[in-house]
């Protein structure tokens, strides 16, 4: 069975028999009016979407632009680290066998070539980070000695040890060792490694250009006056915010009324200029849901449409002729954000070449009812390291409380409710 959303006038029993006989327990079957609808299961929808993730290529960026990006090359140590025998404490450098008192014959500051420690009862004053003078094999901290009139006397309780407070050359890494691996996210410490090894530019995963298209006659601009039968646009801001938190910067927002020809025209323009298209609204089964047909006319291949989940069941996913990834999200705000967290962001993570993290499992702090035939997604507040406080919303249009939530948890279908303490999978807003 190649099609993932089927609306044929076949009998329900025939379809169920076929799916069971084929061993494909990946679908849910339901009636919608006089039609039979086969819905893809959540796990299979995820698998299909991720199989089309691909990547967006590689680009070379400056060190200043690399923060938060995904590395696409191995970085090797330019030289031994540390590159010299490094003094770890302010104090004096001496030969271990030397007996106090010692004559202080000079100062070895950081950033200067190494002095030579001559034979005899002599020492060199040293600073933290400086190179160890040649001939010295011990550093004594300043608090353990008394310096007066160029002479150093011992005032510590424990005798010094050979090699103490010396960070030996190459103790951390040897020249040629791999310091950063391809696929690693570049954090502040990672940028320090790049800088310390002379990397002014680095190869990283190219970030996609993303278009957000919002549809609906009921929508008005944020700054516009609003009639009682209208609502201000908000989904595009939610989607944009989640993408930016995910590291995506090149984002363009578009709006179209519920108009078939207008939808097709704007889709043609958007597809020509973007790697990923995220559409909000117009993907369900109403008389003004023009998006699926417009996408088909625009040459976008449907991969699946409709999933056995709530909220977010009408999700549409496809691929454009140039490899564009296209998501059609339901227009209800909670549904849109659920689908972003569950499908869109994971695809972008895989396409970026980053390392995919293991599933985050949290422990429910309260009971939550399941749905018999569909996966249920419930907003939660994350508490501590591993707890999820469930905060169900009455409808998929009620998004005013989501700003206080950290993400959603996934409850598999079933007849037994999820109880306190059950471990559930968590998806964050970013």
Number of helices: 7
CATH topology label of the largest domain: Molybdenum Cofactor Biosythetic Enzyme, Chain A
Could you state the CATH homologous superfamily of the largest domain?
MoaB/Mog-like domain
- CATH class value of the largest domain: Alpha Beta
| Biggest β-sheet strands, sense, barrel | 6 strands, mixed
Average pLDDT? 90
Q: Into which percent range does the helicity of residues fall?
A: 10-25%
Backbone structural class = alpha+beta
Separation, N- and C-terminal Cα atoms: 34 Å
With strands numbered from the N-terminus, the spatial order across the biggest sheet is 10-7-9-8-12-11
Regions with pLDDT < 50 over 5+ consecutive residues? 1-25
Structural notes for this entry:
By secondary structure, this protein is α+β, with helices and mostly antiparallel strands. It has 5 domains: 1-40, no CATH class; 59-79 and 172-205, Molybdopterin biosynthesis moea protein, domain 2 (Alpha-Beta Complex), CATH 3.90.105.10; 86-167, Molybdopterin biosynthesis moea protein, domain 3 (Molybdopterin biosynthesis moeA protein, domain 3); 206-351, 3-Layer(aba) Sandwich (Molybdenum Cofactor Biosythetic Enzyme, Chain A), CATH 3.40.980; 360-428, Beta-clip, CATH 2.40.340. The protein has 7 helices and 29 strands. The strands form 8 sheets. A 6-stranded mixed beta sheet has the order 10-7-9-8-12-11, with no helix packed on it. A hairpin with a 2-residue loop joins strand 11 and strand 12 (151-154). The longest helix has 19 residues, at 333-351.
Quick synopsis:
With 430 residues, the protein is α+β, with helices and mostly antiparallel strands. It contains seven helices and 29 strands.
